Amino acid sequence: MDFVVSQLLTGLSLSSILLLVALGLAIIYGVTGVINLAHGEFVMLGAYCAWLLQTQLGWGLLPSLIPIFVAVALLGLAIEYLVIRHLYDRPLDTILATWGLGVMAQQIVRLLAGGELRYVQMPAALSGSVNILGATDSAYRLFVLALALGLFALTWYIYRHTSIGLQLRAITQNRQIASSFGINAGRAYRLTFAYGAGIAGLAGALISPLKSVSPEMGTGYVVDAFMVVVVGGVQSLFGTVVSSGLLGELTGALAYLSNDTIAKALVLAAVVVIIRFRPQGLFTPRIRA
Questions:
Q1: Which of 9, 120, 220, 253 is at a distance of 20 to 30 A from 93, taking alpha carbons?
Q2: Which residues lie across from 132 on neighbouring strands?
Q3: Per-residue pLDDT tens digits for 184-203
């Protein structure tokens, strides 16, 4: 029983990181249709913000979370206004533009902060372990899992039970008709991009005590995030949660049976099979005619 619980907790830990990174991407991709290849760099910038606030200002990680969210969200807002808004309905151009923005962000960080690995200290209050049904797990990892679920709940509530969420759902179904009813699609897209970028920055800050911080750290996360979004369904927040849970648990189990490299390869193969038979993802929201 201890072994089963331990493996489940390991999978949930991986799932929480996947959910944190993929949630912002799911919002941006699902609402605006932008394939944001710079999403991983938002994660990286959030991690560097956590390192900077800790080393230069002496802030702990927990008090830094809200300022990091706001800072990366404002950066996303500026990028959407200056670049992305001119490229909607031009998918190839947005792919090239966001890829270029990601490369620029990596090089700017390398010039300003250097290319060596950086480390962020874990909050002292969460540095211990917790015993669950005979198995022990890091208190910080459980905190990350709880916060990831809390962010999902907040995002789902905004999307389903607020006026801005109603506007986003209308724009997602038909932007032209929504605009004819007076909905400002440009403003909605801008807020969506900023919110998604802010969540990515928050994810980077939360990941930073678990991983070393480097200019290239976001590259791997954006691939995993796209797998989660595509498997779950582009416009399904619930699908994002389920697919992150499935892929996280599968990765944890396969890594225990083999190693991390083989586990990633097998998970990617499983994703390819799912897309082959369910190209729309596991969950597709119903749209009323």
A1: 220
A2: 135
A3: 888 888 998 999 999 999 99
